[in-house]
Amino acid sequence: MIQRIQSLYLFVAGLLLTLALFMPWISFFGQEGELYQLKAFTLEQVLGKGAQAFSFWALGALLIIAASLALISLFLFKNRNLQSRFCVFNAILLIGFYLVFLIFFLYTRNSLDATPGLNFGLALPLIALILNFMALRAINKDEALVQSYHRLR
Q1: pLDDT for 2
Q2: Quick check: 40 and 59 in contact, CB under 8 A?
Q3: Which of 85, 102, 119, 131 is the most buried (most CB within 10 A)?
Q4: Which pLDDT value is given to residue 1?
Q5: Inter-residue contact 144 to 110 (CB < 8 Å)
Q6: Could you state, in order of their start, the residue ranges of all structural domains in the chain?
Q7: Average of pLDDT values for 86-107?
Q8: In the beta sheet, which residues pair with residue 27?
Q9: pLDDT in tens, 38-73
Q10: 42/45 Cα distance (integer angstroms)
């Protein structure tokens, strides 16, 4: 299972998506010294008067589904067609994650009237998306190799 390179890509992508659930993605610096951090399920005030937390579930749910798909497709190594479909769906899901994140980012920036600062946690789904495309390419390459052997028989 792990001897194929796409299995390694999918495992690391699932690991990065799981890690992104627990890291802050973006920090907002308010006019009066407040510091807000946007994470998977909350926007919480870290510094400033009165600790506040605003919860939402959309971004966290998308990351949980994407991490689950990456790890499930890892175990579909015997069915390469289904594994490639899972990879394509996971890529679409991660692109949708960034679109939803952009909507949340613009709404939060306007409502808080704060200056944003990016954190490393926001790059992890992008790295997972790149690894997902690399796994898809390797899966398709394996399928083409198997089909060429079938033509030789």
Answers
A1: 54
A2: yes
A3: 131
A4: 47
A5: no
A6: 5-144
A7: 92
A8: 37, 117
A9: 888 888 887 777 667 677 788 899 999 999 999 999
A10: 10
How would you classify residue 79: left for phi > 0, otherwise alpha for psi between -120 and 50, otherwise beta?
beta
Residues 6+ apart with CB under 8 A from 66: 17, 90, 93, 94, 97, 125, 128
- What pLDDT shows up at residue 68? 93
| DSSP annotation of 45 | E
The answer to whether 30 touches 36, Cβ cutoff 8 Å, is yes
> What is the value of pTM for the model shown?
0.87
CATH architecture for residues 5-144: Up-down Bundle (1.20)
C-alpha–C-alpha distance, residues 132 and 11, integer Å: 10
